[in-house]
Each structure stands twice: as structure tokens, then as C-alpha cells.
Amino acid sequence: MSPQSYLLGIDVGTTGAKALLCDQAGQVKASATTGYPILTPRPLWTEQHPADWWAATVKSIRQLLAETEIAPGQVVGVGLTGQMHGLVLLDAQGQVLRPCIMWNDQRTAAQCAAITRDVGAGRLLQLTGNPVLPGFTAPKIAWVREHEPDIYRRTARVLLPKDYVRYRLTDSFFSEVSDASGTSLFDVGQRRWSDEMLQAVGVPRSWLPEVTESPVVSAHVSPSAARETGLLAGTPVVGGGGDQAAQAVGTGIIAEGVVSVTIGTSGVVFAASDTYRVEPQGRLHAFCHAVPGMWHLMGVMLSAGGSFRWYRDALGGQEQSQAAQTGRDPYDLLTGAAAEVPPGCEGLIFLPYLTGERTPYPDPNARGVFFGLTLRHSKAHLTRAVLEGVSYGLRDSLELMRDLGLTIAQVRASGGGARSPLWRQILADIFEAEIATVNVTEGAAYGAALLAAVGAGVYDSVAEACQVAIQVTGSTRPGPASAVYADYYPCYRALYPALAPQFEALAQVVGRHS
Prior knowledge:
about 525 residues
């Protein structure tokens, strides 16, 4: 294959469509992102127009090709990724029937309860690897059936967001196993649509696309899409992956023993698994991985980096003023002072439940807490307690994974929080595991491009692609503070069960007076 060949990864994200070009060695040539709006027609509802995704995708691809002056024929494969769980409904002519109901939409609590009652909570976990959650696709279909019966009657196709862009790119209807796993319609263990779930939700099999493994070529760029995007007609398009699975490929989380922790606004703990493992209470997500024949487990904390951002905005005014005068990062100023505080913060513990919680406590009423305050505690103690509290919460997901028999040899950290040397050391000490950083920061679009490289024949496997493209650039090992945190962690774990009744009582009081 020509050394001038490139792979294109497309990420249909929550706030914009990103296009990324990398060469055969995995070196990123360029990327471009085009934004689009999120609609909130009612409180707790979130929607987007699929046409906006396509327009943004076209613009991002054209911008890339223009900036890099890469010829269309040099792009030898396309991979797709994007936001999971969204509901796109098409009629028999392939026209969109209503705006997409997004992953973070919360309108479907009643439908989730009904599906759980009809199928049974245990059977749901056995089949789909997860409880039915409001963000998932199946309860959204049930909601449309109940509240928009005319739309439901006219429906001929159900697609996920990235698969709608695939349809516009190729005129073909396909999905792949990792994204399909988040619909509550998929038999995750058998890697196929579940007839039992389709019947329970009232979804004809004809509505759903064929499902492939993630690196498999599922379609090719159509002549009409070639004219719009500037790509070459006939360019192979692989299955791709859901955003978390694609991001895991892009950081080399493709074998048991290596786990990723992403500290953005939320926190995600992601582990590859050779076998289909289901957490007995459904506290971890269990999905098919984008690596053929593998699965993954995932825990989600709602306010990870978001907790530190709240702290900076609420209590870091002095550091922000100093940063404005000196050009330093206010986070660096805060963590610099926190580094002088001993591990454990002399008895101060922070619960990071500022927006409720998801793993291991799916509780929207959970709230943030500083526990153990004394006159001795300073602002630096509060800062370090936030970093430690988020790290304890992320360890909760790791412990659930360990309980399922996963060995954790290395944790690869990414996201804004991972840039802090202090936070990486705290993570290593609390996790009792090596914290590594890698040379890639481009996220899910990069993983999609690597999957495209496999489908295009550049590499024989996802493992080979990751071995060539991804290198560890730094390592932080557990230190003496691990023993301190081993004593404090049980105290942290005991706080939520003790406070949960009061979280519920407080929510009722707030509701009466709001």
C-alpha cells in the first residue's frame, strides 16, 4: 500500500462532528470539528437534528481535505464513532421523522420501569448486560409509541447517531456490536439483536440495521456523498464503534489487565474483557468491545473533573486572579498548594456527588459532602480532598471490576485531570496500580481511524494497529501513601450508605420548597 495513504475517523459527538486524518503509522495529520446545537424543548429533554450532524460532517471532511491537500484517493478507509444510545427514526423513504432523542434525555423513566417489569430485572442483565436506563434507545422507542403514535406507525428504520451518518455517507443501513450494545435491544453475550427484547419493546426486526464487528468493512462511500464530501466514491467504510469503545481503541485498551480512566467533566473507568461478564446488580455497563470477540466493562462517575471545576469556580477566586496576572493555570496553583497537604487530608473526605451519581450508586439525589472538617483544615486541605474524593469514587468502579475476576495491571489515564502530576500520583496510590499516559490525545475519532486501518488492510488486527500507533509516554507507580489511603477508603465507602436516606429526605424537602 502506498506510503501516502491515510485513514479518516469521524466522531459524531454531542456538541460537534470531528474528522481526523492519520497516516498508516498512526501519526495524526490534522483534525477539524464543526459544532451544532442541542435542543431542549422541555426540562430534562435533549434532542438534535440529524441533518445537523451530516452538514457538520461534510464541512469537517472538506476542511480537512482542503487544509492538508490530501487527494481523495489517498483516503483508503473511513471509521465512524459517536454519541451512543440516541434514537433516529426514518420512514420508508429514508426521511427523518423527528429530531433524535439523545443519550442524556431523561423523559423515559416510566418506559424503563415498564420494560423492566415485563422482562424481569435479572433476565435484562443476562441478555443485555445492563439495566434499562433512560438514556438507552429501547425506552425511547416505547415513549414514541405511547406519545407520538403517528410517528411510530410511519417508522421503517431505527438508527443510532453515527449510523445515520453512515447512511448518508453510503446509502446503506449498518451498525456494529459496540454501539448496538447500548440500545437494550441487543443480546450482548451472543453479539446479535435479541428477539426477546425486540418483542418486549415492540420493535420489528426489519426496523434494525445489520450488525457487523467494528473493523469490518460494512459499506462504501456513495457517488452522491462523494460529491458532497470530496471523498472518493467506493472508499471503504468500516463498522466503527461507540464513542467509549472507539476511545479505548485509541488509547490501547484492547486486552485484559489494561484499564483506562478518563477524567473529563465526568469520569469513565473502562476495562477490556475476554469473556462476557455481568455485574450481578448491574452497577457496571457490560458492552461488546470494538475488538472482535471481546467485551468491555465500564463505570461512570458523573462529576469527576466537574467537581474540581466547581471547586475552582466557587472557592478558587484568588488563584484565578493570580493566574490572570501571571499567566499560570489556576488549577496548577491549587494543586501546588494541595501537594503540601499529607495524604488523607488529616481526616477530611469529599463525596463527589455534585450532580447525583451513576456508578456504583445510580442515585440522582446523591449530593456532594465535605466530611470530617476541623479547625485545622485549610483551603489546601479542601483542594486535596476533592482530588482524593474523585479518586476514591473512581476506585469504586475498579473494585467492582476486580470482584468480577479482572486483574488490573496498568491504568491508562487521560482527560484534563490526568495532566496533573499530583492527581496521577493520588490515583496510583488509591488504585494501588501503575498510572500510565500515552502519546495519543485525539479521543474516539482516532480509535475510529485505527479501526478503518484494519478494515482497509493496513493492519491485520486491532492489536497490531494499537501496537504500532500507541506508545506509553509516562508512568506513575504507587508510593508509600497507598497504605494511608487503604485505611481511609473504607471510611469513604461507608459514607454513601449512611447518608443515602438523608439524601432522599433532603430531595423531598427541596421539592416542597422549590
